Amino acid sequence: MKRLGPELKMPDLKNVKVPGFLSDLYQDLADRRLLPLVALILVAIVATPFLLGEPEPEASPPVVSPGGSAGVARASSLTVVEAQPGLRDYRKRLGRRSPTDPFKQRYTGAPANGGLPEQSTSSSTSTSGGEAGSVSPGTSSPSEPVEPAPTSPPPSDDSVDPGELRLFTFAADVRISSTRTTADGKKEKSEPEVRREVVPPAALPSAKAQVVTFMGISPKTRKPLFLVSDDVEAIFGEPKCLSGSESCQLLEVDTQIPTTFVYEPTGTRYKINVLKVEPVFKGRYDG
Question: Which end of the chain, N or C, is surrounded by fewer C-beta atoms within 10 Å?
């Protein structure tokens, strides 16, 4: 019997050559005992679509009401209408408001208690015959004349005129107390004295016993500065010496921290405490 077509032959599997990387991969998986795991992963990949593809639940038949076909007819009569959102008609939104004339005065007088100015209200008298002088709805009555605002009082002596130059300086409130030793060895303490608005340069505690001179404040630290007299023998406290080699000549002190100075001519100790420093008006510049 003669065959039609080419003759089919079985391939020789013994002579089929496997690529090198596949054989190496197979040998590595076999050595590490990972072939079962790889087989399990392949089976899971193939079986996943079948396991997840569950059949859809069948729709339950509609429940018929005891009324029979009446419930079905009532349900079939319902229709779905497409929603068409939009803005309402402005006549409906603004129907409760009455139009006003923007060119007429509505507010008279000054604001009350920091709020809006008082709005003038108009009273209307409605009559059946429409008497003269009645105001119809939607119109406003003529506004009352606005009183002129009170003028400001004339400037006082302390007010600043345009172009005027005023001079200020830093004054200090200073508390001073002293302790002196008498001839019999007793110590006498004086009552603390507070001096207000000491303007630099000022000798402290007095011009006769000029222990220090108040020189104002430091431009960098804003702390009080004291020029120390050569008759001061010793200084106690927490001041900062800004100038002087053997004896300090310029001191920078802190407010509310007292500094004690030993005055050599009388042997008296003076405790000086700067309470505060603030700018004060000194005068006008008449250039």
Answer: N
Tell me which of 214 and 108 has the higher pLDDT: 214
Mean pLDDT score of the chain? 76
Q: Which residues contact 169 (CB under 8 A, 6 or more apart)?
A: 199, 200, 216, 279, 280, 282
**What is the rounded CA–CA span in Å between residue 262 and residue 244?**
17
3-state secondary structure of 117: strand
For residues 27 and 41, the model is more confident at 41
Q: Where are the domains of the chain?
A: 166-282
Report the SS3 class of residue 212: strand
Tell me the average pLDDT across 167-184.
91
Percent of the chain with pLDDT over 70: 63
- pTM, two decimals, is 0.43
Residues in the chain: 287
Chain centroid to Cα 2, Å, comes to 102
User: Which uninterrupted H or E stretch holds 18?
Assistant: none
123: CB partners within 8 A, 6+ apart: 135, 141
